[in-house]
Amino acid sequence: MPRELRLLLLLSFGFAVFYFLPVESDRFQAAVFEALALSRWYAREHVLLCLIPAFFIAGAIAVFIQRDAVMTYFGATAPKWLAYSVASVSGAILSVCSCTVLPLFGSIYKRGAGLGPAVAFLYSGPAINVLAIILTARILGPALGIARAVGAIAFCVVIGLSMHRLFRGERSAALDQEEMITIGARGAQRPLWQTALFFFLMVAILIVANWTPPDQPTGAWHAIYRLKWWGTLFFGAALWGVLRWFFNLPSGKLLLAALPAALLAWWVPDYPAAAFLAAVAGLTALMFGGPAELTEWRNQTWRFAKQIMPLLLLGVLIAGFLLGGVEQHDAGLIPSHWIEALLGDSPDTLLTMLGATEAPSRLLARCWPLWSNFFAACAGALMYFATLTEVPILRGLLDSGMGQGPALALLLAGPSLSLPNLLVINAILGPRKTCAYAALVVIMATLSGLLFGWWMP
Fold it and tell me: Which partner from 197, 259, 424, 456 sits 20 to 30 angstroms from 58, CA to CA?
């Protein structure tokens, strides 16, 4: 199709959309409000504490982790048992949401990791979450909790191996020669334990700062949650010391960069996020005018941020518009009662909503389990679930008549996929690999839901 004709069709489509925009509709206005509300919630709850640390870690991987080390554990030629074990364990330790894992996935993939292990890491980060599995067993029942744990681990390996087999003839994703990062003599000679300590502190800050509150205000989990900002302060101070040690930065410069964060923590202790933001700004300031490694770390962090952040915010905006926000899932353009009807144990609710008076046909009744599980997997692939929020949402859906099989299908597809997540994966892997990954997740989630629904009617 000629370029000018494509442009004409695109302009015509855009004109038609704006011409027929139902701005007077209450549903449309509520959906716009929810899109903005979800975007604000995402910016407040996830960008500062989740994404920004993840960007810094991803940039550090690109600079301080030598490519040979990545190839040893994640490379296409690495032993399969080693590559997929490391991918599963490292993703499970992070226990981040489907968006926070993206900078880390992009970093190891660009450093030359094989497609299969990299995708296994991409899936395992949000899916193999120990707390989420425990919470699932406690709130949704032990059977769903066990099925989620077993399914997530199996998916991690099977999807990774399938992606490797599907695209094994394509070249590795290693950076081009002009994009390769030259590690200075100091970085190349640095002992492994020092680099490990550096990354341990950054990952600890990411995990502790995002420690979620428990459902009960008692127990060890609640005690750790109450001390999470003290833990963040401890690991942050240790990281500051490591920066002085690694890069031989002047003590006065380090103290000046840390001073705003310390003052905010003292003046406004009820708003620890302000001190956290000041610490991020101080770390960024240290990267200007310092050693070459620090400058390269800054450049790589910014590269990931500008590639991923706009797509994530766009995806969150669209997801909120279509499906509603975190608390108001009935306010999106697609009414939640339609979703509940399409996820039920039988088509009776949907037929009632459509005004049908006759009982469903035998063919529809037999095909319904396949449809409801497939729809649950697809809905999970588009909805955005912050870490642990999928459990109370599913509790409400189960109380509204959702079947056990579709519940498992949504649990296995939802946390690892989302519309924002898919937009970023497409920018990293391209449309073919993104579609293959999404299709594998949806198909396996559908089949798992069918088997579980048959076993647990």
Answer: 259
CA distance 332 to 30: 7
- CB-based burial label for 380 (10 Å; 0-12, 13-18, 19+): buried
Contact between residue 225 and residue 211 where contact means Cβ atoms under 8 Å apart: yes
From the list 379, 350, 353, 347, the residue with the least C-alpha distance to 366 is 347
The whole-angstrom separation of Cα 148 and Cα 150 is 6
Q: Tell me 211's DSSP state.
A: P
In this structure, are residues 199 and 54 in contact, taking their beta carbons and an 8 Å threshold?
no
Residue type, 445: A
Q: What are phi and psi of 385, to 5 degrees?
A: -115, 120
Torsion sign over Cα 127, 131, 136, 137: positive
Distance, in Å, from the CA atom of 210 to the CA atom of 99, rounded to the nearest integer, reads 14
Give 1's pLDDT tier (boundaries 50, 70, 90).
low
* Helices and strands in the chain, H and E counts: 23, 0
Q: Within 65-218, where are the H helices?
A: 67-74, 80-94, 101-110, 115-127, 130-140, 142-166, 185-189, 192-209
The answer to whether 131 and 414 have CB atoms below 8 angstroms apart is no
Q: How far apart are CA 176 and CA 365, in angstroms?
A: 54
Q: Give the Cα separation of 409 and 137 in Å (integer).
A: 15
* Radius of gyration in angstroms for the set of CA atoms belonging to the chain, rounded to a whole number: 24
Q: Which residue has the higher pLDDT, 363 or 103?
A: 103
Alpha-carbon span 3 to 11, nearest angstrom? 12
Strand partners, 344: 402
Give the residue-averaged pLDDT of 10-29. 88
pLDDT average, residue stretch 224-251: 86
CA pair distance 401, 389, nearest whole angstrom: 19
Beta bridge pairs of residue 402: 344
- Using the CB atoms, write b or e for 387-404: b if 16+ within 10 Å: bbbbbebbeebbeeebbb
Q: Cα separation of 120 and 98, whole Å?
A: 13
Of 99, 92, 95, nearest to 38 by C-alpha is 99
Report DSSP letters for 135-172, one per residue.
Answer: HHHHHH-HHHHHHHHHHHHHHHHHHHHHHHHHTTTSPP
Nearest to 86 by CA among 47, 121, 42, 127: 121
- The pTM of the full predicted model, rounded to 2 decimals, is 0.82
Gap between the Cα atoms of 437 and 260, Å rounded: 44
